[in-house]
Amino acid sequence: MISSVLLISLYFLRFSSAHVVHAKTTINETCINYGRNYDCRFYQCYEERFPCGPSYWMLKWGYKYCDRMQRAAFNFDKTGQELIKKLSQCLTNKLLRHGLYKFHDINCEVLRSTGQRIVQECYMSNAKLFCQAYHGRNRDCFFQLTDSDDRHDLNVIRTMTSVGQKCSPKKKLSDMKPNKKMNQCLLTPTL
Q: Which key words tag this protein in UniProt (predicted)?
Protein backbone atom coordinates (compact mmCIF):
# COMPACT_ATOMS: atom_id res chain seq x y z
CA MET A 1 0.00 0.00 0.00
CA ILE A 2 2.74 2.44 0.95
CA SER A 3 4.71 1.70 -2.22
CA SER A 4 1.61 2.38 -4.36
CA VAL A 5 1.05 5.73 -2.66
CA LEU A 6 4.73 6.60 -3.11
CA LEU A 7 4.64 5.72 -6.82
CA ILE A 8 1.48 7.78 -7.38
CA SER A 9 3.01 10.71 -5.49
CA LEU A 10 6.20 10.54 -7.57
CA TYR A 11 4.14 10.40 -10.74
CA PHE A 12 2.19 13.56 -9.87
CA LEU A 13 5.31 15.32 -8.63
CA ARG A 14 7.01 14.59 -11.96
CA PHE A 15 4.18 16.08 -13.98
CA SER A 16 3.51 18.99 -11.66
CA SER A 17 7.12 20.13 -12.09
CA ALA A 18 7.23 19.14 -15.75
CA HIS A 19 8.80 21.30 -18.40
CA VAL A 20 6.15 23.84 -19.44
CA VAL A 21 7.13 26.35 -22.11
CA HIS A 22 5.30 29.41 -23.34
CA ALA A 23 4.97 30.05 -27.07
CA LYS A 24 8.06 31.94 -28.29
CA THR A 25 6.66 32.81 -31.72
CA THR A 26 3.25 33.66 -33.10
CA ILE A 27 1.17 31.06 -34.90
CA ASN A 28 2.75 30.71 -38.31
CA GLU A 29 0.55 29.61 -41.22
CA THR A 30 3.69 28.55 -43.12
CA CYS A 31 4.40 26.07 -40.33
CA ILE A 32 0.86 24.75 -40.41
CA ASN A 33 1.14 24.39 -44.20
CA TYR A 34 4.37 22.40 -43.74
CA GLY A 35 2.31 19.98 -41.66
CA ARG A 36 -0.47 19.84 -44.23
CA ASN A 37 2.14 19.12 -46.92
CA TYR A 38 3.97 16.50 -44.80
CA ASP A 39 7.14 18.59 -44.88
CA CYS A 40 9.63 17.78 -42.12
CA ARG A 41 10.18 21.49 -41.46
CA PHE A 42 6.84 21.31 -39.62
CA TYR A 43 8.62 19.69 -36.67
CA GLN A 44 11.35 22.34 -36.65
CA CYS A 45 9.00 25.31 -36.61
CA TYR A 46 6.82 23.56 -34.01
CA GLU A 47 9.97 23.38 -31.88
CA GLU A 48 10.71 27.06 -32.57
CA ARG A 49 7.28 27.97 -31.21
CA PHE A 50 7.61 25.64 -28.21
CA PRO A 51 11.33 25.07 -27.56
CA CYS A 52 11.18 21.93 -25.44
CA GLY A 53 14.73 21.05 -26.48
CA PRO A 54 16.59 18.32 -28.34
CA SER A 55 15.76 15.59 -25.82
CA TYR A 56 12.01 16.04 -26.30
CA TRP A 57 9.76 14.52 -28.92
CA MET A 58 9.61 17.13 -31.72
CA LEU A 59 13.33 17.06 -32.44
CA LYS A 60 14.39 13.74 -30.91
CA TRP A 61 11.69 11.74 -32.74
CA GLY A 62 9.47 13.80 -35.02
CA TYR A 63 11.98 15.78 -37.05
CA LYS A 64 14.85 13.29 -36.85
CA TYR A 65 12.90 10.33 -38.24
CA CYS A 66 10.84 12.35 -40.71
CA ASP A 67 14.05 13.73 -42.20
CA ARG A 68 15.87 10.39 -42.22
CA MET A 69 13.00 8.48 -43.79
CA GLN A 70 12.43 11.06 -46.50
CA ARG A 71 16.15 11.28 -47.31
CA ALA A 72 16.40 7.47 -47.43
CA ALA A 73 13.15 6.76 -49.28
CA PHE A 74 14.92 5.90 -52.54
CA ASN A 75 16.47 2.87 -50.76
CA PHE A 76 13.03 1.31 -50.23
CA ASP A 77 10.86 -0.56 -52.69
CA LYS A 78 7.49 0.86 -53.73
CA THR A 79 5.67 -0.62 -50.72
CA GLY A 80 8.30 0.70 -48.31
CA GLN A 81 8.04 4.16 -49.85
CA GLU A 82 4.26 4.02 -49.50
CA LEU A 83 4.63 3.09 -45.82
CA ILE A 84 6.97 6.04 -45.22
CA LYS A 85 4.49 8.35 -46.96
CA LYS A 86 1.48 7.02 -45.02
CA LEU A 87 3.26 7.25 -41.66
CA SER A 88 4.39 10.81 -42.40
CA GLN A 89 0.87 11.84 -43.39
CA CYS A 90 -0.66 10.16 -40.36
CA LEU A 91 1.75 11.77 -37.88
CA THR A 92 1.42 15.33 -39.13
CA ASN A 93 -2.36 15.02 -39.62
CA LYS A 94 -2.81 13.82 -36.04
CA LEU A 95 -0.51 16.50 -34.63
CA LEU A 96 -2.45 19.18 -36.50
CA ARG A 97 -5.80 17.75 -35.35
CA HIS A 98 -4.69 17.83 -31.72
CA GLY A 99 -4.23 21.59 -32.13
CA LEU A 100 -1.32 21.77 -29.68
CA TYR A 101 0.57 24.09 -32.03
CA LYS A 102 -2.04 26.80 -31.43
CA PHE A 103 -1.82 26.66 -27.61
CA HIS A 104 -0.21 29.55 -25.68
CA ASP A 105 1.93 27.21 -23.63
CA ILE A 106 2.66 23.53 -23.64
CA ASN A 107 3.83 20.88 -21.25
CA CYS A 108 6.76 19.17 -22.98
CA GLU A 109 6.03 15.90 -21.16
CA VAL A 110 2.46 15.92 -22.45
CA LEU A 111 3.78 16.64 -25.94
CA ARG A 112 6.20 13.71 -25.61
CA SER A 113 3.49 11.28 -24.49
CA THR A 114 1.12 12.58 -27.18
CA GLY A 115 3.82 12.07 -29.83
CA GLN A 116 4.53 8.55 -28.61
CA ARG A 117 0.84 7.67 -28.63
CA ILE A 118 0.39 9.11 -32.12
CA VAL A 119 3.33 7.06 -33.45
CA GLN A 120 1.71 3.90 -32.06
CA GLU A 121 -1.66 4.84 -33.56
CA CYS A 122 -0.11 5.57 -36.97
CA TYR A 123 1.79 2.29 -37.08
CA MET A 124 -1.29 0.36 -35.99
CA SER A 125 -3.53 2.07 -38.54
CA ASN A 126 -0.97 1.15 -41.22
CA ALA A 127 -0.27 -2.36 -39.89
CA LYS A 128 -1.29 -4.14 -43.08
CA LEU A 129 1.05 -1.98 -45.17
CA PHE A 130 3.78 -2.37 -42.53
CA CYS A 131 3.49 -6.16 -42.74
CA GLN A 132 3.76 -6.00 -46.54
CA ALA A 133 6.70 -3.59 -46.50
CA TYR A 134 8.80 -4.80 -43.57
CA HIS A 135 10.94 -7.45 -45.27
CA GLY A 136 14.37 -7.83 -46.88
CA ARG A 137 16.12 -4.59 -47.74
CA ASN A 138 13.22 -2.51 -46.41
CA ARG A 139 13.55 -4.17 -42.99
CA ASP A 140 17.32 -3.69 -43.04
CA CYS A 141 16.98 0.01 -43.95
CA PHE A 142 14.29 0.72 -41.34
CA PHE A 143 16.50 -0.92 -38.74
CA GLN A 144 19.62 0.93 -39.88
CA LEU A 145 17.90 4.32 -39.81
CA THR A 146 16.78 3.83 -36.20
CA ASP A 147 19.29 4.88 -33.54
CA SER A 148 20.56 2.06 -31.37
CA ASP A 149 19.27 3.74 -28.19
CA ASP A 150 15.84 4.19 -29.73
CA ARG A 151 15.63 0.49 -30.63
CA HIS A 152 15.74 -0.20 -26.88
CA ASP A 153 13.11 2.40 -26.00
CA LEU A 154 10.14 0.72 -24.32
CA ASN A 155 7.64 2.66 -26.46
CA VAL A 156 9.37 1.57 -29.68
CA ILE A 157 9.46 -2.04 -28.52
CA ARG A 158 5.79 -1.91 -27.56
CA THR A 159 4.82 -0.35 -30.91
CA MET A 160 6.85 -2.81 -32.98
CA THR A 161 5.56 -5.76 -30.98
CA SER A 162 1.95 -4.62 -31.37
CA VAL A 163 2.18 -4.01 -35.09
CA GLY A 164 4.08 -7.29 -35.59
CA GLN A 165 1.15 -9.14 -34.03
CA LYS A 166 -1.08 -7.82 -36.83
CA CYS A 167 1.03 -9.58 -39.49
CA SER A 168 0.27 -13.01 -40.86
CA PRO A 169 2.26 -14.88 -39.78
CA LYS A 170 2.77 -12.80 -36.65
CA LYS A 171 6.17 -11.16 -36.33
CA LYS A 172 8.08 -11.17 -33.07
CA LEU A 173 10.57 -8.44 -32.29
CA SER A 174 13.40 -10.83 -33.19
CA ASP A 175 11.81 -11.28 -36.65
CA MET A 176 12.19 -7.56 -37.27
CA LYS A 177 15.97 -7.40 -36.93
CA PRO A 178 18.04 -7.20 -40.10
CA ASN A 179 19.56 -10.31 -41.54
CA LYS A 180 21.67 -8.76 -44.26
CA LYS A 181 24.63 -6.43 -44.44
CA MET A 182 24.11 -3.12 -42.64
CA ASN A 183 25.09 0.29 -43.99
CA GLN A 184 23.47 -0.41 -47.34
CA CYS A 185 20.98 2.45 -46.99
CA LEU A 186 22.15 5.85 -48.05
CA LEU A 187 20.75 9.27 -47.23
CA THR A 188 20.44 12.00 -49.82
CA PRO A 189 22.34 15.10 -48.69
CA THR A 190 20.38 17.78 -46.84
CA LEU A 191 19.76 21.02 -48.66
A: Signal
